[in-house]
Amino acid sequence: MVDIRSVHKSFGSLQVLRGIDLEVRSGEVAVVLGPSGSGKSTLLRAINHLEKVDSGWISVAGSLVGYRRQGDRLYELREREILKQRTRIGFVFQNFNLFPHLTVLENIVEAPVSALRCPRKEAVRAAETLLARVGLADKAAAYPRQLSGGQQQRVAIARALALEPELLLFDEPTSALDPELVGEVLDVIKDLAHQGTTMIVVTHEIGFAREVADTVVFMDGGRIVEQGPPAEVLDAPRHERTKAFLSKVL
Ligand code: ADP
Ligand code: MG
Question: Which coarse location class applies to the principal site listed for this UniProt protein (predicted)?
């Protein structure tokens, strides 16, 4: 589903991604761990076209998302193709990023109607189903500010699902939440995992990683230092940097 090869990215002289290779199969969950500044968000943003890579390539569901250097030529997608591909990838941010002036229902209905030209009635029906799925059927008419952080994040997940994405990306979805609200959001993500949704989740929640990850990826300094099943990377890490990181977050 996701195939990332030799991806490099710099901001000025700062090398943020230094040759990333990663494969995620359909229905798999990859959990990405790593210290702050290791390039995790940049990697997710590159997959979703929010950031251009300098070299290497990324493909999602068989179609090219990233950029390919062929000889001296840098092959880039046109803006229209990018927008089309972006609708196939759901992105959930740390800070929810809901539209504050729209109700919960309108937040979810907006993208299918505007990006996919889905008939409004149909989009509303689908949104109601999604709200029930994240346990918020009674909040359709509320505004984001009237919800807790955990509820807002569940709306953000429903909004991402409304485009029926082939891939879901989560960037520290529970980092902005009070501790008592973390569980309700992780439960929704776990449900999605059990239903076979392909996901890449950046998180520091090790228990969650152990429970749902097919692959745990540990990044440091723009590189993947170690990757493998949770039982290997979390319980028997081979690299010193992985061990040092885990001893701090566990
Ligand atoms: P992580 O998500 O692992 O904390 P990021 O991918 O956000 O790491 O950032 C990796 C490095 O790239 C950091 O040093 C960060 O300051 C830098 N960086 C990220 N985005 C930009 C940007 N748009 N311009 C300049 N530097 C950036
Ligand atoms: Mg980040």
Answer: membrane
